[in-house]
Specification:
The complex is a heterodimer of chains A (about 230) and B (about 700). Chain A is an alpha/beta fold and about 230 residues long. Chain A is built from seven helices and eleven strands. A seven-stranded mixed sheet of chain B has the order 8-10-7-11-9-12-13. The chains are: A alpha/beta (about 230), B alpha+beta (about 700).
Chain lengths: ~230, ~700
């Protein structure tokens, strides 16, 4: 077993991620946060949800658990760390990824299918991807990415909100993120966080118009495994 | 009160009066409704757990050893006072009723009715109701997959917030809510606090307009999620599960005891604040608490599951065989009452009186174009993206049809089957004729399921009315039940559960329009339909339009006249069956039932998607030449279909006594409705400024 899908109290997407990884032929298991042992895995996915109720600030309580200290060590040692939605929020709250995720500009939770342009092909999930515009759903209240050094953010950005042809414009920015950023990675590309939910775009039956671009992203973990 | 004193032959303690008050409240005892509720058809081949079990939620067989749990409940009174917490705790209550059966909640629906949005307070109510549902549903990871949002001044002081939930469980793993033998330990999880004091009694009277905030519960969805996860972990280790809902601990213990006895030590109940009085502990409705009946040797492992999450779990007493409900506090017995007395409140059958309604039979002289523009601009028909986009409607990755995509929600089940689910009500019709309305809403739900290819298998209902002691109100209640029961019997969709909510009135004591509501579940046996629209497709009307326009959206806007639509049950069934067959044979790409707004209302989603529609009114099969009836009548058993030319013939040949007529085609003239090749009505303004923008705009500035 190589990929751990972390369940914090309040995580809601662990089964969805597990199912999508199975669809992508990636072996994984759901691990409750207290039982997590980083040495046993070479990749970890932190799924979406409302860890510890997102009380205080989204992701902030989970960021201060021993589980996240172990995940930071994994990240530093070059192992793969993926954060989706609340998982992304936890990664920035714990300082493993740069920047911050603020409340959406209109201060509302927003569920919507969006297009994102792939800005980097050197990360664990985007390496070898054969498309540069993906269709994925977002569902969050705190997804406005912020970074005080826009130049750096531009370099780290992996996914940018765009139209279906890949044009990045403020019109396609659903939450007010700086530079339309939907997901970023560290310089090395082994740690990646994103607001869209790839696991929800992994099954033909339940994806908008049957598109399964999320599965293409998750298959990146297969490439790591090999 | 005299009755109780006489039965017991003694004076009662304060705690005992509160116990009686909670258990005999309308909310918990159904004292004014039970007699008529027993007339619902409640058995059938798919019924696993029906209404006569009185377990609040019903269960239906969906094959391969699985059952779905169906539940509907309102939180009208709390939402009128504190819409955010009121609606959020409404979701929590439905979820806990589902997990009480050992089932995993997989979907929610919300049916919201508020006053018109030109009123500031209504906007405030709506904004917080939607936010509250999202806050709770999103946090616990259960998708809101569908619902209704409509407006009427009758709901200005008394909004209706109905939440339905679906759970899934292995049939042989359904956990009962009541015990079958004494000797079990009583285990409570969660902290008891001061909120929601006397909520069941509060819900069983009209709103006083005074400060009633103390009777509203506070939502804590994180605790709700912990309770959800841990309860499902222990559900096969306990003998009975019950949510601590209306009436609090005293009601949960008494109902779970099921006629047996119970002894509870109130000192052992984990408290959120110190020094609650025994009375407060008894009737507090603090959320996120559950009650379990557990074999003594299994208590430890049950509590360990909760302690993993640092969630309080305590043994507070045990079920006994002495048929007495006893609560101790600091060594003293504060309640000692016979089980029988508590579970058998006096029943009421109030007087009925048919209300005399103004009969206006004057057909208004209305310009057709003006009527069309006005109907398509009705807030009831606008796009509801503003609302459903605040819900995490895809968590669980089982939402096959998304909110707004079709007439019914559609979700996939663990056994691979597809479950359609839809809630329907029609207060404008119910106020005219509650009996016809009862039949109509069941038929409409059945039609809505058919539009995605599903056949209804059962339903739950929620009956919302004013003060039952008013004969006109009670008449509406009784008549709606007659209608719902008759149609359910006919369609083979038994009523497996439900709820009654009385005392819904405005500040002047005027009752709401009667709002019975049904939530029907159905299964797709073959193919399902995801609606698709292409230019050039033929527009087909299935069913005969009748000039029965009373109680329609059109008459609401232009003045009431004419006859009430009658529901012809066999015609409904034949029309729905034709639709399901057409979907399975691949003979249609889009189906919509004709209801609110009549034919024009049904064509609106096609136009809103940026297509044009050209129809010949003479081709609409109708019992009257009146153009207003053809365009706006809401008579039942009708659908609009889009189909290829060659499929129209198939539809005609396979319709058993049902009218089928090609009335026009989809054109490329964007957002234009063309009538009889002469009248060209450009609806761009209505669509762009209104259909897609109304809610966003009206809700963003206040």
């Amino acid at each position: 077993m190589r990929v751990a899908v972390i369940k914090f109290p309040g995580t809601t997407c662990e089964i969805d991620v597990y199912k999508a990884l199975r669809e992508a032929n990636v072996e994984s298991e759901v691990v409750r946060y207290k039982e997590f042992d980083g040495d046993k895995y070479n990749a970890v996915v932190i799924p979406g949800g409302f860890s510890f109720g997102d009380y205080l600030r989204a992701g902030s309580i989970a960021a201060n658990t021993d589980t996240m200290r172990q995940i930071k060590e994994m990240a530093d040692s070059g192992k793969v760390v993926v954060g989706i939605c609340n998982g992304f929020q936890i990664l920035v709250e714990s300082g493993i990824l740069e920047g911050a995720l603020l409340p959406n500009l209109n201060m509302r939770f927003l569920s919507k299918w969006v297009y994102v342009r792939v800005n980097r092909f050197d990360t664990v999930l985007t390496k070898g991807l054969n498309k540069n515009v993906l269709r994925l759903p977002i569902a969050h209240a705190e997804g406005r990415y912020y970074h005080d050094k826009p130049e750096l953010a531009k370099r780290l950005a992996v996914l940018l909100y765009s139209d279906e042809r890949g044009n990045v414009d403020e019109r396609y920015n659903p939450n007010g993120s700086v530079l339309n950023i939907a997901g970023i990675a560290n310089e090395e590309g082994n740690v990646i966080g994103m607001m869209p939910h790839p696991e929800r775009a992994s099954f033909k039956l339940t994806s908008q118009d049957g598109s399964i671009d999320g599965l293409s992203l998750l298959r990146g973990l297969k490439r790591v495994e090999a | 009160m005299e009755l109780v004193r006489k039965t017991l032959n003694r004076e009662l303690s304060e705690e005992e009066w509160l116990t009686i008050d909670a258990l005999w409240s309308e909310h918990c005892s159904y004292k004014s409704s039970k007699f008529f509720l027993t007339s619902f058809p409640s058995s059938g081949k798919n019924v696993v757990m029906g209404i006569e079990d009185w377990q609040d939620a019903g269960a239906l067989d969906v094959g391969d050893g699985y059952a779905i749990i169906l539940k509907v409940e309102s939180h009208n009174h709390p939402s009128a006072v504190d819409p955010f917490n009121g609606s959020a705790t409404g979701v929590g209550g439905v979820i806990r009723d589902i997990i009480s059966k050992g089932a995993r909640p997989i979907a929610l629906l919300d049916m919201i009715r508020v006053g018109n949005l030109d009123n500031k307070r209504n906007k405030w109510l709506l904004k917080n109701i939607i936010a509250g549902i999202g806050f709770y549903g999103n946090s616990i990871g259960v998708p809101v997959v569908g619902g209704e949002l409509s407006f009427d001044d009758t709901y200005t002081d008394n909004p209706l917030v109905d939440v339905a939930g679906v759970g899934v469980v292995k049939k042989d793993k359904i956990v009962p809510s009541v015990i079958k033998q004494p000797g079990l330990k009583i285990v409570i999880v969660g902290l008891t606090g001061l909120d929601g004091l006397g909520g069941a009694s509060f819900a069983s009277r009209k709103l006083s307009g005074e400060d009633e905030i103390g009777a509203v519960q506070i939502a804590d969805p994180f605790a709700g999620k912990v309770v959800l996860d841990a309860t499902l972990e222990v559900s096969d280790k306990v003998e009975a599960i019950k949510d601590l809902g209306g009436g609090g601990l005293v009601v949960a213990v008494t109902e779970m005891a099921n006629g047996f006895g119970a002894i509870v030590n109130l000192d052992d109940v984990p408290l959120r604040v110190k020094d609650l009085s025994p009375a407060e502990i008894l009737i507090s409705e603090t959320q996120e608490r559950m009650l379990f009946a557990v074999k003594p040797e299994r208590v430890k492992e049950v509590c360990e599951a909760f302690e993993y999450y640092e969630y309080p779990c305590a043994v507070i007493g045990e079920f006994t065989g002495d048929k007495r409900i006893r609560f101790l506090y600091r060594g003293k017995e504060v309640v000692d009452l016979p089980s029988d007395l508590l579970l058998r409140p006096p029943r009421y059958r109030w007087d009925v009186r048919r209300s005399k309604r103004e009969v206006l039979n004057e057909r208004p002289e209305v310009d057709v174009e003006r009527a069309i523009r006005k109907v398509v601009s009705s807030p009831d028909l606008v796009d509801k993206f503003w609302a459903y986009s605040q819900f995490d409607y895809e968590v669980g990755t089982s939402t096959v049809l998304k909110p707004g995509e079709a007439d019914s929600a559609l979700i996939s089940l663990p056994n691979g089957k597809l479950l359609a689910i839809k809630g329907d009500a029609n207060p404008d019709l119910c106020v005219e004729d509650p009996y016809e309305c009862g039949k109509y809403i069941v038929a409409e739900a059945y039609r809505n399921l058919a539009t995605v290819g599903a056949k209804g298998i059962g339903l739950v209902d929620h009956l919302q009315f004013g003060d039952p002691r008013k004969p006109e109100v009670y008449y509406q209640f009784v008549e709606s039940i007659r209608g719902i029961a008759e149609a359910s019997q006919f369609f083979g969709t038994p009523v497996v559960g439900g709820k009654v909510s009385f005392y819904n009135e405005n500040k002047e004591g005027k009752p709401i329009k009667p709002t019975p509501l049904v939530v029907m579940a159905g299964i797709v046996e073959g193919k399902f339909l995801r609606p698709r629209i292409f230019e050039g497709l033929s527009i087909v009307v299935v069913g005969l339009t009748r000039n029965e326009i009373r109680g329609s959206l059109f008459t609401k806007l232009f003045g009431n006249y004419g006859e009430v639509p009658k529901t012809r049950l066999n015609e409904e069934l034949m029309a729905s069956e034709l639709i399901i067959r057409a979907i399975n044979e691949g003979k249609t790409t889009f189906v919509k039932d004709i209801s609110k707004g009549g034919l024009v209302g049904a064509l609106l989603p096609i136009i809103a998607k940026g297509f044009g529609v050209s129809i010949r009114t003479r081709a609409i099969p109708s019992d009257d030449e009146d153009i207003l009836a053809k365009l706006f009548s809401e008579s039942g058993a009708r659908f609009v279909l889009l189909a290829e030319e060659e499929s129209v013939k198939w539809l005609e040949e396979n319709a058993k006594g049902i009218y089928v007529s090609k009335i026009g085609r989809v054109t490329k003239e964007q957002k234009v409705l063309e009538l009889d090749n002469e009248k060209r009505i450009d609806l761009s303004k209505e669509i762009d400024n209104y259909y897609y923008n109304y809610l966003e705009e009206v809700m963003s500035n206040y």
